[in-house]
Amino acid sequence: MLYDIRLTIAHRYAGSAGNGRHLLRVLPRQMPGRQRVSAHLVDVTPHPDQRHDSVDFFGNAVTTVTHLEAHSEMSIRMSSRVEITASPGFAGTQLDLAELRGALTEHRALNAASPLHFLGPSPRLRPIADIADFAHMNCDPAAPVAQTVARLGEALHHFMTFDASATTVDTDAAEAFAKQRGVCQDLSHIMILALQSLGIPAGYVSGYLRTLPPPGGVRLEGVDAMHAWVQAWCGPDQGWVEYDPTNATFVGTDHIVVGYGRDYSDVSPVIGYLRSSGKQTNSQSVDVACVD
Among candidates 232, 173, 239, which has minimal Cα distance to 201? Predict the structure, then answer.
């Protein structure tokens, strides 16, 4: 699948802002054999006084921008062309939970893809007893780990109601779980905690998702948003698998990866600081178009 992706994030400040520094994680990743980025552009207005492009510990593309002059708004525009190759599916030995724990005790690597980084806790995620109980009620310890991931994701999909008005970007997993409502960020955080409570390493994936109009409907541009899902480590043979609890499906060619992390704080599209007064308003639009 070949996609053209466009993202716009706009920040408007009630009072002029100055001395701002922001980290942007909006570019799709280069992933040999799965995801190839053939063209890309990240543009920031007003033009930053300093800019640096780098890669963070987890291998995510990061653009750091600094504004020294006063400004009343900041806009971020990203465009890219990305080719997605279908996954070959599951291969190798499938472990159950006890076998997975044994494999983890023998794991020594501490590189970015090491499952040891994803056993919790993390900056935004701490163990929650109610979520752990939910995980154990929807788990067969003798089943292959990948099957456990799918079973838990489906259960969470049915338990939670997608509701964009129920939570904000700062809502914690316990509150969203208690409400049984939230968005993809909330479902992903809850699923990570559930998997970790079973001893399964799990992390947060930020990216883009191609969405299709209902039958007979018209596809609108710029109405999509960035998406989130989960990665889970299923053992040394299978490695990492990715599951989207919002849509109750393993990740396929409609999912485009931007970044991997322990939780949202590791891959948030924009994070930083500035000096200002008064409130600010934010808006975001995303367009993921399949190239014929």
Answer: 232
**pLDDT digit string (tens) for 20-38?**
999 999 999 999 999 999 9
Name the phi and psi angles at 196, rounded to 5.
-65, -35
- 22 strand-pairing partners: 65, 272
Whole-structure pTM value = 0.95
Rounded to 5 degrees, what angle do the CA atoms 195, 198, 199 make?
A: 90
- CA neighbor of 12 nearest in space, from 260, 262, 283, 228: 283
Contact 57/110 with Cβ under 8 angstroms? no
Q: 43-63: per-residue pLDDT in tens?
A: 999 999 999 999 999 999 999
Query: Would you state the pLDDT for residue 221?
Result: 59
**Of the candidates 205, 239, 229, 208, the residue with the CA atom closest to the CA atom of residue 89:** 239
Write the CB contacts of 276 (distance below 8 Å, at least 6 apart in sequence): 13, 14, 15, 16, 17, 18
Are 173 and 190 in contact by the 8 Å Cβ rule? The answer is yes
241-261, pLDDT tens digit by residue?
999 999 999 999 999 999 999
Query: Which residue in this structure is represented by tokens 């501490």?
Result: 110
Across 168-184, b (16+ Cβ under 10 Å) vs e yields eeebebbebbeeebbbb
φ/ψ (deg, to 5) at 147: -70, -35
DSSP 213: P
266 — phi, psi (to 5°)? -80, -20
Burial of 228 (0-12, 13-18, 19+ CB in 10 A): buried
With cut-offs at 50, 70 and 90, classify the pLDDT of residue 106: very high
Specify the pLDDT at position 163.
95
Distances (CA, A) of 35 to 40, 255, 288: 13, 10, 15
Tallying the residues shown for the chain, one arrives at 292
